[in-house]
Amino acid sequence: MIDLSTGYLGFQLPSPLVASAGPLSRSVDNVQRMADAGIGAVVLHSLFEEQIEVEAADLDRILASGVEMQEAQSYFPDMTSYNIGPEGYLEHIEALKRAVRLPVIASLNGVSLGGWVRYAKLMEQAGADALELNLYEVAGDPEQSGAAIEDRYCSIVSEVRSQLRIPLAVKIGPYFTSIPNIARRLAQAGADAVVIFNRFYQPDFELESLSLVPSLQLSTSQELLPRLHWTALLHGRISADIAITGGVHTAEDIVKCMLAGARVAMTTSALLHHGIGYARSLLVDLNQWLVEHEYESIRQMQGAMSAGKVSDPGAFERANYMKVLGSYTLSDAAK
Ligand SMILES: Cc1cc2nc3c(=O)[nH]c(=O)nc-3n(C[C@H](O)[C@H](O)[C@H](O)COP(=O)(O)O)c2cc1C
User: Fold this and answer.
1) SS (HEC) of 208-257
2) 0.90 exceeded by pTM
3) How many domains, the chain?
4) CB of 25 shorter than 6 A to ligand 1
5) Is 275 a member of any domain?
6) What is the pLDDT of residues 34-71, one digit of tens each?
7) Ligand 1 centroid to 43 CA: how many Å?
């Protein structure tokens, strides 16, 4: 009997496969199907700082004009193209908690220090088992130094941590000069897990109209490599759990995440592409892989290929650079 269980954010999960934040979690029925398929926990689609701030500003303005609270709610602008807005979000958490038993991780998405972080507490009160804070920022201002941005991230994490009793995960992008340093600082500021990495979406250029076109492509397994690399380098060097999001499509991908040192492997693209039922076949294949390779449990393999454990840790660092470049064989056309 293979033991697929893992520990993440203090929960004992039946499997290391977690549904990352995405549109599927907007439906209670979908989350129920994820649980039935063996998914260990679900991260909800995000509630965004912008939605909370717009709603708060509008509420102040409307109430100042003498309108009653109930009537005021019908004045809110439509920010619901992606989700159901702040109040609806809290109600969704409550509905999910009534319907499913797997841990429900709410997601709060923002990057400035401000009143929106109070929603962390409201999410906890609505019944969220944990919170994932997504620091998705496009740092395009030349006046802002990397150090100042990182200090702000740590302040946001401390502020959110101070409002919560439930566990806190922090989802970050890959664009830091020192990922181990920021990961360690976020853990010191109160993150119980770091989730690596956000995918950043860049608009494409439409050449005839000279306009920018939003572009969201689902990932492939190729995107897993930087996540494995940094997980392997972080494992055992920060106090927080590590979760991988990005490029998890096959049972082998999940195995690689575990060997690098992640506690959970998250997926969205694979479920969007194949449907929620695909989670079950991933877990059947994962079980089979462990049997064939004579592992008894997931825990046994976690971190076994981290930088501290492999025989050639230089492969993760600059030492490997020249070797990789030299390994490329020119094709006949290029000669
Ligand atoms: C359609 C779509 C919606 C998403 N919505 C969110 C979101 O609300 N909050 C968030 O933190 N990540 C969101 N993500 C990112 C995913 O959680 C995940 O980190 C990313 O897609 C990489 O994982 P994957 O390769 O398994 O897709 C979304 C992704 C997709 C494709």
Assistant:
1) CCCEEECCCCCCCHHHHHHHHHHHHHHCCCCCCEEEEECCCCCHHHHHHH
2) yes
3) 1
4) no
5) yes
6) 999 999 999 999 999 988 987 766 655 555 666 554 55
7) 10
